[in-house]
Amino acid sequence: MSSILTNNSAMVALQTLKGINANLTQTQAEISTGKSIASAKDNSAVWAISKVMEADVNGFKAISDSLSLGESTVAVARQASETITDLLTDIKGKIVAAQEDNVDRTKIQTDISALRDQITSVVNAAQFNGLNLTKGTEVVDVLSSLDRGPDGTVTASSINVERQNLTQDAGVFGAGSDLTTATLSNTTLGTQNSLNINVGTVANSTAYTVTLNGNDYAFTSDADATADEVRDGLIAAIGTNEPDVTVASGTGLFTLNYSGASDDLSVAVSGTGLTAAGGATSIASIAETVTFDEATPITEGDSFRVTVGGTNFDYVAGASDSYQDVANALAGRIGADDTAGVTATVAESGGNYTLQLANTTASDITAAIAQKADGTAGGGLETLSAIDVSNATSAEAALANIEGLIQTSIDAAAAFGSAQGRIETQSDFIGKLSDALKSGIGAMVDADMEAASARLQALQVQQQLGTQALSIANQSPQNILSLFR
Q: What is the pLDDT of residue 2?
């Protein structure tokens, strides 16, 4: 049936042409924008994912800038630490030269003072954009990543860079509450510890032996042995063979006096009538021990004071200090004082560190320990200002002091070097991660230009054919006129 009101062929041709024009418009948009998904209406799910990833890429660009800034800041601090190490090594050379008697120690001290001032200049100049990592104790955070969780939450990650305080600032002992994290075994540092070896009823023609640290000292009694002969014979056998042991004679006994400062002296006796008082098997070293409560964490500002013979030796803990650091610092301060009359060493047992104090004089020395909170930590090179080579005794103490200071600067340079290496690695990773994200976004939303070009050519031909088909369909009602002629 033909109708002049309804032209089905024209409607079909028109709908086809509209579809072709719509596809042609979309293809032209892909070619002009370069994207197959340019808005949420194209594919809402893929578009949403791409926008989230684009936001992350922009965030990583800011992180890359942060890492570059952090790397430069740490590099300056590392270079300063290495320079300070070189200067401290120069000071050590001066101190070694001062050990010789035939030198002008005044001029050497002048050189040391100049090098000390140069170290101060290096520390003050070691800043980047106002941030100086060689001063203070606070931890500096360098923004390093944005971590997106499965639920979409985003958290920022940072690389923690610990400051290494290389100033010569003196610490300020705390005035806060009393602490109980360190205890001293004895308030008197004695010169020796003793053990009586009792000589009772002895036997004739018998071998008698006293064993000290595995060394045997023997005497054999004769046929008419007396206790005094056995006593005197053993005293003579021991003689001066043990460097830290002296022997004193008494009635019916002799006394072993031990002045060793590091290890206990093991003791064993054998022979009829020969006994150690109380059945003792050793004589304790003269060192008294400062023991730290490892179960109680150290807080920045915790202050420790060891008083020896009326002289105070203080150390105020920094933010990252351990009890090992506290013990080493106190040992260094006591050892640097040539008038203290005390040697200070650090001992370790089972991961716990103790400070050992030993008297080197002929008289007892009083000792005490005090602890307070809320102090101000000094610089890592605090004791550099105390170096003095004006006389032989102080020059010897300075040599022991400088070793610890050099190690402090080496540790600082190593810490900064490790931090800089980590920042460089993270920066390289962030760059590669950003490139990977960009590639992933492109794979989701970028247009395939080869396919779009081919599709454009095909749609243009289809458009021409669709236009021609619509023209033909619109001419069909003309044929109805012939029915009325």
A: 65
pLDDT for 337-384, tens place per residue? Answer: 878 889 888 888 888 899 999 998 999 999 999 999 999 999 989 888
Give the whole-angstrom CA distance, residue 134 versus residue 379.
9
Gap between the Cα atoms of 354 and 366, Å rounded: 19
- Single-letter amino acid, residue 2: S
Structure tokens at 394: 């102080």
Average model confidence (pLDDT) across the chain: 89
pLDDT band of residue 213 (cuts 50, 70, 90) is: very high
Banded pLDDT at 466 (limits 50, 70, 90): confident
Written as six digits, the tokens of 145 are 């990543």
Query: How far is CA 51 from each of CA 146, 375, 432, rounded to the nearest angstrom?
Result: 16, 52, 19
**Can you give the pLDDT at residue 440?**
86
Query: How would residue 108 be classed by pLDDT, with cut points 50, 70 and 90?
Result: very high
What gap in Å lies between CA 261 and CA 265, rounded to an integer?
Answer: 10
Written in H, E and C, the secondary structure of the chain is CCCCCCCHHHHHHHHHHHHHHHHHHHHHHHHHHCECCCCCCCCHHHHHHHHHHHHHHHHHHHHHHHHHHHHHHHHHHHHHHHHHHHHHHHHHHHHHHCCCCCCCHHHHHHHHHHHHHHHHHHHHHCEECCEECCCCCCEEEEEEEEEECCCCCEEEEEEEEECCCCCCCCCECCCCCECCCEEECCCEECCCEEEEEEECCCCCCCEEEEEECCEEEEEECCCCCCHHHHHHHHHHHHCCCCCCEEEEEECCEEEEEECCCCCCEEEEEECCCEEEHHHCCEECCCCEEEEECCCCCCCCCCEEEEEECCEEEEEECCCCCCHHHHHHHHHHHHHCCCCCCEEEEEEEECCEEEEEEEECCCCCEEEEEEEECCCECCCCCHHHHHCCCCCHHHHHHHHHHHHHHHHHHHHHHHHHHHHHHHHHHHHHHHHHHHHHHHHHHHHHHECCHHHHHHHHHHHHHHHHHHHHHHHHHHHHHHHHHHHHC
Of the candidates 120, 140, 119, which has an alpha carbon nearest to the alpha carbon of residue 130? Answer: 140
Residue 1: its pLDDT value, please? 60
Question: Average pLDDT of 241-264?
Answer: 94
21, 28 Cβ separation under 8 angstroms: no
